[in-house]
Automatic annotation (TrEMBL):
Transmembrane intervals: 12-40
A GO term for molecular function: acyltransferase activity
Superkingdom of source: Bacteria
Subcellular locations according to the entry: Cell inner membrane
CDD domains: LPLAT_LABLAT-like (cd07984)
UniProt entry tagged with the keyword Cell division: no
Listed name of the protein: Lysophospholipid acyltransferase family protein
């Protein structure tokens, strides 16, 4: 009961915070940056090691600059994500703009469904919310459930505010089979870390052997869906664009792992261009090939 009460109190507090104007939220973010980076040192060692391994060719000074930029952006990401709880549709449309929404109808007009790979890059939560506004056809967001059921329900309700259907990772195959005869646009985060017993493939990503899910490739071949990348770019503080980048139009003609390599390395290129916007505090490289029996 106490845990439940604490969850509800936390959710109510987040809702109140979400009602604050953006300018005040960014003031909070600036203070939060000083606290988590200079005082608490939240996962600084994880970020530093990830940057060292990913960019060994860069100088220590360059990597330290990226590190600070990352933590400053991370605090912006936190307050922007909280703001998504109550943000209006008009404000969302102004702050997360598609650059080529016509691509959706282009493929739907051909009777093709779409599967998009996305990364933990820029504000993926704001992009997920804006995704619901992109089309009136079936929109599917595949998510990894949070351990706290109450907060998991909160964020699912937020993501579904504009019509998207939320599907947990474990239910993805069943859902895609159920809707395979309908036009659909599905988004899956491609840089999640598989648990050890689910690892079937390693690739080289950011200079390191990296375990990746093969789900996007399997689903695309199963329903013959066009594979795109859901690219997000930061224009300025609080403002973004997203672009639908075609990767594979004929998935059934591809070779093994071709689709996976395409979306993984598109994300890699994006990170290399502006590394401060990727989720460096995530322990992405927990598993090594020599520890896994493939």
């Amino acid at each position: 009961m106490l845990r439940k009460a604490a969850s509800y109190a936390g959710i109510f507090f987040l809702y109140l915070i979400s009602l604050l104007p953006f300018w005040l939220l960014y003031f909070i973010a600036d203070v939060l940056y000083v606290v988590i980076y200079y005082l608490i040192r939240y996962r600084v060692s994880v970020v530093r090691q990830n940057l060292t391994n990913s960019f060994p060719e860069r100088s220590d000074a360059d990597r330290r600059k990226i590190e600070k930029q990352y933590f400053h952006y991370l605090t912006d990401l936190v307050v922007e994500t909280v703001k998504m709880i109550s943000v209006s549709e008009s404000s969302l449309r102004k702050r997360m703009k598609p650059t080529n929404p016509e691509l959706v109808q282009h493929y739907f007009g051909q009777g093709r469904s779409i599967i998009a790979a996305a990364g933990h890059y820029c504000n993926w939560e704001m992009a997920a919310l804006a995704f619901g506004l992109l089309t009136n056809e079936k929109r599917v967001i595949v998510y990894k459930p949070l351990q706290n059921e109450d907060f998991n329900r909160l964020f699912n309700n937020v993501r579904a505010r504009f019509g998207a259907m939320l599907v947990s990772m474990k239910q993805t195959l069943r859902t895609m089979i159920a809707i395979k005869n309908e036009l659909s646009f599905s988004v899956l985060v491609s840089d999640q870390t598989p648990v050890a017993h689910e690892i079937n493939y390693f690739t080289t990503f950011l200079n390191q052997p990296t375990a990746v899910f093969l789900g996007i490739e399997k689903l695309a071949k199963m329903i013959d869906a066009v594979v795109i990348f859901y690219r997000i770019d930061r224009v300025k503080r609080g403002y973004y664009t997203y672009t639908l980048v075609p990767l594979i139009e004929q998935p059934k003609t591809t070779t093994g792992h071709e689709i996976t390599e395409a979306h993984v390395h598109y994300l890699e290129k994006l990170i290399q261009e502006k590394p401060q916007y990727w989720l460096w505090s995530h322990r992405r490289w927990k598993h090594r090939p020599e520890d896994i029996n493939l």
